[in-house]
Specification:
Order of helices and strands: EEEEEHHH
Structural class: alpha+beta
Radius of gyration: 16 Å
Largest sheet: 5 strands, antiparallel
Helix content: 25-40%
Shape: globular
Distance between the termini: 17 Å
Number of strands: 5
Number of helices: 3
Number of domains: 1
Amino acid sequence: RSRVSTQKITLISLQPDLSHLYGCADMSDTNAHVVLFQSNKFFWRTRNSIDVTIVQYNALNVTEIISYEPSIDKEAPRIYLNSKVLVTKLDYEEIASKVGAAKQRNAPTQTAEFTSDITNQAMSDYILNR
């Protein structure tokens, strides 16, 4: 059984016009970000679905959560998380078990892309389960 941390993730405020201070021209710079998740999330109690996009800006150490409610055509205020804090919240036992399962299937597990994909999925799962 996995222990879930009750400690809150530190939110940060990010001014788009200050992004040049962090080494990229703006937050839309395609080389500076990775889309971790882009799909919809269904809430069964209210029976509604929202579109969610989670983007990580590596140069800024920021993870951005963008949510959009298509039924009312409205985007919620964007949420910015400190990526360094988010990484400390990941379930590394689960990540290790996924790597172990891949090794049993003789999948190439020593690549940076494989490791990055598993970590990105763990970050997305952590955010979406909150």
